[in-house]
Amino acid sequence: MKKKVIKISTICAIILFCVLWMFGEKKFSLKLDEIKKIEIFNGNTGHSIVIQDKDEIEKIVSNLNEVSMRWKEISFLKLGYSLKFSIYNEQGKKMKSFIINGEDYVRKTFFSYKVIKGKLNYEYFYELVEKNRK
Questions:
Q1: Rounded distance, CA 43 to CA 25, Å?
Q2: How far apart, in whole angstroms, are the C-alpha atoms of residue 60 and residue 64?
Q3: Cα–chain-centroid distance for residue 107?
Q4: String of DSSP letters for 40-102
Q5: DSSP code of residue 31
């Protein structure tokens, strides 16, 4: 009987942890001093830009770190996107990759998130790629 209670308690604790993790508030929490470059690809036009200017990186990172998000849905089979961000460290290794499909919609790995605090500067990011495309 005691083993059964322990098993049920463990399963309940795992489920509770998963629910709190999924529905909890998320932040980008990017560290400016670790970022060497940011690549943004526009999925609508096929244009991309690589940003290595420290001031520009700071502006982007500051905006991303200002927002808080909450889990919205599983986006495992969703295709297509507007802006894909890839963030690289000093060694050229990709640290983070995510998609922004508007000022309040972010997709990371298999999940989509809705911005609940702050606002992504989507228009600025979009124009940045289109003005300085390669």
A1: 27
A2: 6
A3: 6
A4: EEETTT--EEEE--HHHHHHHHHHHHH-EEEEEEE-TT----SEEEEEEETTS-EEEEEEE-S
A5: -
Sign of CA dihedral 67, 72, 74, 75: negative
Quick one: tokens of 123? 């228009």
Which of 36, 92, 80 is closest to 61 using CA atoms? 36
At residue 111, the 3 state secondary structure works out as strand
Global pTM? 0.80
pLDDT on residue 3: 80
Decide if 31 contacts 96 (C-beta within 8 A). Answer: no
pLDDT tens digit sequence for 29-85: 899 999 999 999 999 999 999 999 999 999 999 999 999 998 888 877 777 789 999
Cβ–Cβ under 8 Å, residues 29 and 16: no
